[in-house]
Amino acid sequence: MREHKSLFADWDEAAVDPIRDWFVGDYYSPQDDSFTTSIHSWLVKSPDLTILIDTGSGNGKPRPLSPRFGDLDTPFMDRLKAKGVSPEDVDYVLLTHLHIDHVGWNTVKRNGEWVPTFPNATYVMTKTERDAKDPLIGAREKPEGATFPFLDSVKPVLENASVKLVEGNEQGFLPGVDFIQTPGHAAGQMAIRLSDGDEQAVFIADVMHQPIQVYNPDWSSKYCEDGALARETRKKILAYAAETGCLILPAHFGGTHCGYVEKNEKGYSFRPSEVMP
């Protein structure tokens, strides 16, 4: 998927020059002024648990206000099966936030009804996000089409699956799994931190959409609900990543999808992972 550079209102082409050697190609095309944009659903397996972090865009869903996500036919379930995971195997679905491209595979259509895709899973979301996206609560003023992702991908889960509403700052929610509040892009967005001894990986969702934001943390995307708060959150996550050396796994980076943040005299730099996760 491609995204035009208008993703950032503060875009400055000169910002590409210092990182051109690795940024152009895998992440950005000057020929058509566009970014490579992925939509990630992360599979995490331990000896005892199978976890999905976010569920992408889903198939066959009406999206009149976002047609690029509408009526898709993607091999998501085949890819999951190729990893040895059936829908019944998933123990937890951790939803960083409830935007259109993070909740789609929560449900599938059976007999004309949207039903939970993962029947044995506990779906986890923040109460803030649930309330903000519910057309009966925080989204009452939204146009009808804007509420479709909630109605077909969240509401059926709330009604027919095991659901845990959280604050988004829980420590030890599962063994080695913590939540970090990362509001701004979405009101109740949270990051997911995995820890194994001294090693950490943080799934930062949409705190950043493209690695050029590591170098320009004041840039918020046009999809951020609160751009100013998103900037504050981004700077906190960058400082944390640089201090701890954790692997960061954003939801939409092209290239190798993830990498490391390092502090320098000008701010921060990004080192893409050498291995595709």
Looking at this protein, list some descriptive labels:
four-stranded mixed β-sheet; 19% helix; alpha/beta; 26% strand; five-stranded mixed β-sheet; 277 residues; 7 helices; 16 strands; globular
Summarize the structure.
The chain has 277 residues and is an alpha/beta fold.
Rg, alpha carbons: 18 Å
| C-alpha termini separation | 19 Å
- How many DSSP helices? 7
Overall mean pLDDT score? 96
Shape: globular
If strands are numbered along the chain, what order do they take across the biggest sheet?
4-5-6-9-10
Oligomer: single chain
Q: Give the topology string: H per helix, E per strand.
A: EHEEEEHEEEEHHHEEEEHHEEE
Biggest sheet character: 5 strands, mixed
Instruction: Tally the beta strands.
Output: 16
Topology:
Layout: E1 2-4, H1 20-23, E2 28-29, E3 34-36, E4 42-45, E5 50-53, H2 76-82, E6 92-94, E7 107-110, E8 113-116, E9 122-126, H3 127-133, H4 148-153, H5 155-160, E10 162-166, E11 177-181, E12 190-196, E13 199-205, H6 212-215, H7 227-244, E14 247-250, E15 259-264, E16 267-272
Parallel strand pairs: 5-6, 6-9, 9-10, 13-14
Antiparallel strand pairs: 1-3, 2-3, 4-5, 7-8, 11-12, 12-13, 15-16
What does this 3D model show about the protein?
- This protein is of the alpha/beta class and 277 residues long.
- It has helices at 20-23, 76-82, 127-133, 148-153, 155-160, 212-215, 227-244, and strands spanning 2-4, 28-29, 34-36, 42-45, 50-53, 92-94, 107-110, 113-116, 122-126, 162-166, 177-181, 190-196, 199-205, 247-250, 259-264, 267-272.
- It has a 5-stranded mixed beta sheet with strand order 4-5-6-9-10.
- The longest helix is centred in the last third of the chain and has 18 residues, at 227-244.
- It is globular, with a radius of gyration of 18 Å.
- The model has no long low-confidence stretch (mean pLDDT 96).
